[in-house]
Amino acid sequence: MGCHHDTPHPFAFPSARPHYAADRGARAEHLKLEVSLDFERRSISGVATTTFAAARALTHVVFDAEALEIERVLVDGRKAQFDADDRRVTVHLPRALARGQKATVALTYRGTPRRGLYFLGPDEKVKRPEQAWTQGQDEDSRCWFPCLDAPAQKCTTELIATVPRRFSVLSNGALVEDEVHGALRTVHHRLDQPHSPYLVTLVVGRFERHVAKAGATEVHTLFPPGRKADALRCASRTPKMLAFLEGLTGVKYPWGPRYSQVFVTEFIFGGMENTTATTLTDTVLHDARAHADSTAEPLIVHELAHQWFGDLVTCRDWPHGWLNEGFATYCEALWMEEADGLDEADWYRGVLLDAYLSETESYVRPIVERTFDEPIEIFDSHLYEKGALVLHELRQTLGDAEFRAVVHAWLEQHRHQSVETVDLARTVEAVTGRNLDRFFDERVHRSGHAALTVELSFDASAKKLKVQARQTAPTFSVTFPLELHLGNGEVLHHVLELDGPEHLSFVDAPREPRFVCVDPRRHVLGTLKVEQPTAWWRRLLVARVPVRARADAAKALGKDGSALSITALAHVLSDEKAFWGVRGACAKALGQARTPSAKAALLTALSCKHPKARRAVVAALGEYRGDAEVAKALTALCRDGDASVHVEGEAARALGKVRAPRALETLRPMLERPAYADAIQVGALEGLAALQRPEAWPLAVEMSRYGHPVNARRAGLQTAAKLAEVAEKKAQTVDLLADALSDPQFRVVMEALHAAPVLGDERLIPFLESRSYLDGRARRSARDAVRTLREKAGAPKELAALRTEVDALKGEVRALKEKWDLSRPVAKPKGAK
């Protein structure tokens, strides 16, 4: 489908092909893993035993096993023939199975996984702890044990792990046994409810533990030694979250008496919802100073919500992954609404919308998208944030009571099953009697979103409000409220339905409104531009109305820039009782106004109490390039510091943007100030990038070196790329980024890929194309970077078209190779007796 967005590229590369769920000739029923970890060799060995039932007559079964050496295969205790390559193991059954018959296949294997299972340990520059942890989503469980690796292959599991005795072990389900024998420890976990193979987990390391209760459920939080206070700052409300999710869904925590979450080092995602045993990145652990304006709660509740949405009820295949991720992401906003109020929740939904809209500047796609090279590519803001916002629109369409009834029925009817989007539509219809096929077609199966413009004017003689609503193609069916505020608490409510490119309506009103709120809480998924008299905007800004409507008023008044509008913005900014996000929007508007009175209001607001509002003030001052008074205030803030690490980092960033005369001397020592998330060092580096001084380039290069904190290293790479031209160091920066593509820290590799288009030097292309990336996100980013660099280099259209054809041919060759690998005969099967 077409879209109103002029995006530079389609989502899928020419090599992409449609993906569909695989046949399930064998249906897994139980998986038993008996594994030993060798930390010195960073290897695994063991036996993966799968009991399955035949869905049809079978003579062989194909297991996923990537880069694992299969030593022996037993079928029901008898040695069996098998064929193996780097991706799959085909087991030839000693006797054919009829439909419904069962068999147990035990594969003895070993390997040194490059994905799926990760070993960590210290070196001479980075004092990381000894740990091993797994990450199965989307298709990486096959990299550390042979399995039927598909979301729909739900089965019960048990894991028996033997590790050095100094470590503790966490896996799915109940702890059956923990036995020490000599220098080793063997730990047995078992989960007697079916779940998907990507959710199987193993975490090994030294951890401390905190145990709390949520009704009948124990909540175990595991964290690095000595960081209990930091862990509790992040996760202390987990029991309340669990109780909230039980109330929201009407379904008790479905996995028995325990929920665990463990903070690990250098995790490659923010978190992973492994059944009963979530893995979380330890980068969210923060100290008391950072706590005022830092939180891990969206991550904590997201992964916890997956225990219902994703683990209990699971997408059948990855194109429908929004049924996992959309629900979990929406639960972030729902928890915020419960715990912190409507203002915080509404504002957070705005953050989700901004993330999705930002991604649409690169591409748009349907939420349910089958055409890709690797499943990880669709784990983007369309899947997460847009998926969450679709569910919010569904809630508004149904009403709270019916929405909760649908959620409850969804979980109960599909418990321990795999689902597709059509199942959710049918659940809605069964519970409410409403056919929402159009809703799902427009918002899930079609790309884009509503782009609305609403013009408001009042006809005093007719006593009518004229409402002219328009939307650009493609059009969506949208319904949203209008609130006419007449003064003295009198409000007229009107509902506008738009089912086409435009709609003109007239609303009766006894007198001119003081202002009008259009979709006050911003329920509609899309963009909304409202045009109304400036005086109305000024009254709206100071009124007690939803926060996102007030933020839009601030934006409109900043564009107006009149003395009256600046005064209104300054008034709200100075109000310590006003919501911090609205104050931040006022600060941003004053920064864009760049008038003396706007600057004065911002300088006064540097003393405001809320750290998030104060940060917005500092960022707005960064718009006053060349202003000596602003430079003086920011220099003092950088020198003296702030209670908030984020405000301090923002001050460094703003000082560089202002280009104060002695900014380099001020920013240099800030590179040595450690803080949560490396916020001050990152701010200083970004300030140096904005400063555009050649002397800053070597500082950025040094901060990018292995041994510095990861976020500082990432900012160092970006800053070096941004300064390369002014420093006349493009060739050296090419070498810097090329080396970073092979860095041992994954997030640094990703940053190098993102910095490549910033540098804009096509000499990077051979390095980008020749590296072997372990992670699909890196492979996608590398291809994006190469495409952008070629476009910047101005490649002739004919050459670009030829490269497109070559990419498409590569995809066809890969598809043919996969078919060949699955069907070709092997002359000498391994394991034959």
Question: In what order do the strands lie side by side in the largest sheet?
Answer: 6-5-9-3-2-12-15-14
Q: Given the helix and strand composition, which structural class is it?
A: alpha+beta
CATH class of the domain at 28-206 and 808-833: Mainly Beta
Find the CATH superfamily of the domain at 28-206 and 808-833: tricorn interacting facor f3 domain
Distance from N terminus to C terminus (CA atoms, Å) equals: 56 Å
Helix content: 25-40%
What's the count of strands?
A: 31
Strand content: 15-25%
Q: Poorly predicted ranges (pLDDT <50, ≥5 residues)?
A: 1-5, 811-833
Question: Can you describe this structure?
Answer:
This protein has 833 residues and is an alpha+beta fold. Among the domains are: 28-206 and 808-833, Immunoglobulin-like (Sandwich), CATH 2.60.40.1730; 313-443, Orthogonal Bundle (Neutral Protease, domain 2); 450-532, Immunoglobulin-like (Sandwich); 692-794, Leucine-rich Repeat Variant (Alpha Horseshoe). 40% of the residues lie in helices and 24% in strands. An 8-stranded mixed beta sheet has the order 6-5-9-3-2-12-15-14, with no helix packed on it. The protein has a 5-stranded mixed beta sheet with strand order 17-18-19-21-20, with helices on one face. The protein has a 4-stranded antiparallel beta sheet with strand order 10-11-16-13, with no helix packed on it. β7 (82-84) and β8 form a beta hairpin. The radius of gyration is 29 Å and the shape is globular. It starts with 16 loop residues before the first strand and ends in a 10-residue tail after the last helix. Mean pLDDT is 95; it is low at 1-5 and 811-833.
